[in-house]
Design a protein that fits this description.
Alpha-Beta Plaits, elongated, binds protoporphyrin IX containing FE, 263 residues, alpha+beta, 2 domains
């Protein structure tokens, strides 16, 4: 009897693991890699009055903030970044992904409604979506293969976000002309694939931008050289806005950011 109960418990445990554990990990993986996913980058600065509250009052809001992240966990995946110390304009930002922009909005409205949220100024927000590659199909097989260069293993503590707007001439250029410029862009940047992880969001019509570019790296010197290399290609002449603001932060778990804000 005891053995039968044990077997049933083990089967149930395996079922739970299969249904809950790996499935949610898979969703995150999917949302971070597939086209058709909506992303919002919400940047916040903590008001001066926040620091005048006593420590206990600040600490009591941490649980409330965590509960909001948990409540929306079925609809959005979130990543948190610390800007404080590296920026005078903002303290942290949240990157939110989901299959509906509405989910991003609902999460952020709840976050802004918390005790901490009432002391937050939302200094910038960028909205975009992921799409299938436009130019990769026209690249040579060699360049396509080179784009599969694996990222060096190891932690990548820094995240950089660069919002970009193209000029009218870019959008008026023919597909062939843009293919040629994006080939040059790829040639100039391919050497950095090992140390710079990248993600592209399309923002035309959803924001006053055309693209939100997002990067993770451990080597800010490589990232600096990458940008200089890209500033030298033709395609850069069509960047009407590059940055403004550029966000440079460190990837930190929510708990760590809350700890810094409540300590
Ligand atoms: C690791 C280095 C990089 C590589 C290998 C790379 C490669 C590429 C490739 C292959 C595309 C075409 C995607 C498609 O087919 O739709 C692309 C698009 C783009 N890249 Fe990069 N890139 C790199 C870094 C950067 C950086 C640092 C920026 C700017 C901060 C940037 C800005 C863009 C933009 C705005 C597009 C979209 C262009 C468009 O669709 O009109 N890239 N990149």
């Amino acid at each position: 009897m005891a053995t039968r109960v044990g077997v049933v418990a083990a089967v149930l445990a395996i079922l739970c693991l299969t249904l809950a554990g790996p499935a949610s990990a898979l969703d995150r993986e999917k949302l971070l890699s597939e086209p058709g996913v909506y992303a919002t980058f919400a940047v916040f600065k903590v008001d001066e009055d926040w620091w005048k509250l006593d420590k206990a009052a600040r600490a009591s809001t941490a649980a409330e903030v965590k509960a909001v992240f948990q409540k929306h966990g079925d609809h959005v995946i979130t990543d948190t970044y610390l800007l404080r110390g590296l920026s005078e304009r903002a303290d942290f930002f949240v990157r939110v992904h989901s299959t509906e922009m509405l989910h991003n909005q609902n999460f952020l409205v709840d976050l802004m409604g918390t005790g901490l949220g009432k002391y937050l100024a939302n200094t910038s927000t960028f909205n975009g979506l992921t799409k299938k590659a436009n130019y990769v199909p026209a690249l040579s097989d060699d360049l396509k293969a080179a784009l599969k260069t694996p990222l060096d293993p190891g932690p990548k503590p820094y995240a950089i976000v660069v919002p970009i707007r193209k000029d009218a001439a870019w959008w008026h250029a023919s597909q062939d002309e843009r293919n040629a410029m994006m080939k040059e862009h790829t040639d100039a940047s391919i050497a950095y694939l090992k140390t710079v992880k990248r993600k592209l969001y399309h923002a035309s019509g959803l924001d006053d931008l055309d693209f939100i570019t997002y990067f993770e790296t451990a080597k800010l010197d490589d990232f600096n050289n990458l940008i200089i290399a890209l500033e030298r290609v033709q395609e850069n002449r069509h960047n009407k806005q590059f940055g403004y603001p550029t966000l440079l932060g460190t990837i930190r778990p929510l708990e760590e950011i809350l700890d810094i804000l409540t300590r």
